């Protein structure tokens, strides 16, 4: 399958590119800087900004699936999750691929369950309000896109090695969880073509 990975230069994006390539997929990596992909296997690397339709289009053309793995760093008011995701959705509608997987987070309602998770995340809410606002906008864009979407919601991501896929839940966890990026990406690869995961949030 040809898979476009947006934000392929991040830690999760790189792991996904490696695992997908090893399993025979044709990875089209979309990144801000091609230099950040040195040593990472991908069939093709496309460089462009998150709001640049002209550079995104060739990266998505011919793909059957798109993975959004970017994460906002630095300027917290950049509309990466809203405007960046809207551009991906619009490009997919124009070019044809229907399968969209988004790596998001679980640190805001209704994705938090239980008093412990809510209490611990309250500090995150105080300091990261613009990011949570952006995440909610992203959720609206993805869930109303009409595409075959899945939103992946890990707790804390780690770089621990893994040889098997992580198991996901359809319900938010009542405790803080951590999952290795490798196990998460193996899981995504397993159910990329599984219609049972379409239209769902998956918690890790
Ligand atoms: N880290 C965790 O414990 C954790 C927990 C739960 C959820 N998540 C979410 O999981 C996803 C993947 O996390 P991660 O730790 O692998 O990656 P990350 O560090 O959150 O994101 C890195 C990627 O995002 C890109 N990026 C950052 N700011 C950008 C901007 N303003 N415009 C365009 N691209 C931008 C980076 O590009 P450059 O390489 O060019 O900088 C890189 O490709 C993220 O959405 C993150 O929020 C992370």
Automatic annotation (TrEMBL):
One Pfam short name: NAD_binding_10
Entry superkingdom: Bacteria
Domain (NAD(P)-binding) ranges: 7-195
InterPro entries: NAD(P)-bd_dom, NAD(P)-bd_dom_sf, Polyketide_Oxido-like
GO molecular function terms noted in the UniProt entry: biliverdin reductase [NAD(P)H] activity; riboflavin reductase (NADPH) activity
Name of the protein in question: NADH-flavin reductase
Organism annotation: Rhizocola hellebori
Top-level taxonomy: Bacteria, Bacillati, Actinomycetota, Actinomycetes, Micromonosporales
